[in-house]
Amino acid sequence: MSTVLESALLPTYPDAKVTFTEGDGVWIKDADGKTYLDFAGGIAVVGLGHRHPAPLAAAHAQLDKLWHASNLFATEPSRTLANLLSSKFGGAQAFFCNSGAEANEAAIKYARKATGKRGVLAVEQSFHGRTLGSLGVTGQQAKRGSFVDDGAVWVQPNDIDGLRAAMSDEIGLILLEPVLGEGGVIPLSRDFVAAARELDALLCFDEVQTGVGRTGSFFAFEQLGVTPDLVTMAKALANGLPIGALVVSDAAAGAFQPGDHGSTFGGNPVSCAAAVAVVETVDDDLLADVRTNGAKLLAGLQGLPHVVEARGRGLLVGAELDIPAGDVVDAALAAGLVTLTSGANVLRLAPPLVVEEAHVDRALSILTEVLSA
Ligand code: PLP
Hints:
Elements: E1 20-24, E2 27-30, E3 35-38, H1 41-44, H2 53-63, H3 76-89, E4 92-97, H4 100-115, E5 119-123, H5 132-136, H6 141-144, E6 153-155, H7 160-166, E7 171-176, E8 179-180, E9 186-187, H8 190-198, E10 202-206, E11 230-233, E12 244-249, H9 269-281, H10 284-301, E13 307-313, E14 316-321, H11 325-334, E15 337-338, E16 340-341, E17 346-349, H12 357-372
Parallel strand pairs: 3-15, 5-6, 5-7, 7-10, 10-11
Antiparallel strand pairs: 1-2, 2-3, 4-12, 8-9, 11-12, 13-14, 14-17, 16-17
C-alpha cells in the first residue's frame, strides 16, 4: 500500500492507508504515483471531479482579487450565490457558513426562533454533523455516545404511523435527509415526506450530501413532490472548498434578525466564487447523465456476490452486503477503486457527477473481482 507520512494529528479518524497527492476528474493519484478511480469523491464533495476548470478558474480569479472582507460588508460572490440558490429553490434567502454541521446548527436555531419551540423530530440512523447541536439530532447513539444528550424525538425511516405518533406540540422542526447518506443509503419515500409536510412544524431537508445534483436533480426534494421550509447544504457546493448554507424559503422568511446568527468565514468570497461556478455547471444535461449513470451503477451492483440489496438515488448508491463493508472498501482500494462505507455493512458509492459510462463499467468490474475473491 501507499506511503503514509507519520503525523501529529489527533486520531479522530482511523489510520490512513493512502496519501493522495493529485486529482484529475474522476481519477486520484497517491504519493507513490498509483492512480485510482475515485468513487468516493472526498465523501460526496468533489461533485464536478477534481480540478474541474469552472470552479478552479473562478476560485483562482477570486484569490487574485479579494480573499476576505467579513460580513460587515458586501462582497459580490456571496450575493450572487444567494441569488442563484434562491432561483434554484424558487424564492429563498441564504445564510452561508463553512460546513454541513454548521448549516444544521443554523437550521435548528432558525426553527427555534421561528416557532418558539425547541423540539426536533428526526430519523433513526440519520446523520447531521458532529457539533453538539447537530450531533444531538443525529439518530446514531454510537456517535452521540457520552458527548451529548438526545436532542430529538426519533422515528424509523419511512415509518409514517411512527412519524405521526412522534409528533407533538413541542416540536418546531422536522429534520430529514432525503436519502440517509451515512446511515445505510436509505431513500425516504414520497409518502413519508408528504406525511411530514402535513405536520405542524417547519420541515428542513438536510441536503448536505444529496444536494447540488447528487441524486439527479439540483435538490433531491424536487423528486419527492414536497417543498420544504428550510434546506441545509454543504459538501459539493464549492466542489471541495469549505462552505455550508442554510436556505430559507420565502414562505418561512423573517425569523432571523441582525445579531441572531453569524460566522466569521461564512460567505467567504473564494468559496462562494467557486460555488457560483459549480451551481452554474450543474445543468440539465449533467443531471440527466447523473440519472443515467446512477441507474447503470445500481443495476450493475444488483446480483453481485454478497450484495443483499442495492439502493440509492442518482449517483448516491449503496450496496447492502452480507459481509463487513470496510473489508470490501480496503480490497477495492488495493485494486485501484476508492469507495466508502455507510454503516457497518453498506458499501457506498458517490463518484463525481461527471463520471462516464466507461468509468462505471470499470468500477463494477473491480467490485465484481473484489466481491468474488
Ligand atoms: N448532514 C449530512 C447529511 C451529512 O452527510 C454530513 C456529513 O457527512 C453532515 C450533515 C455534516 O457535514 P460536515 O461534515 O460538513 O459538518
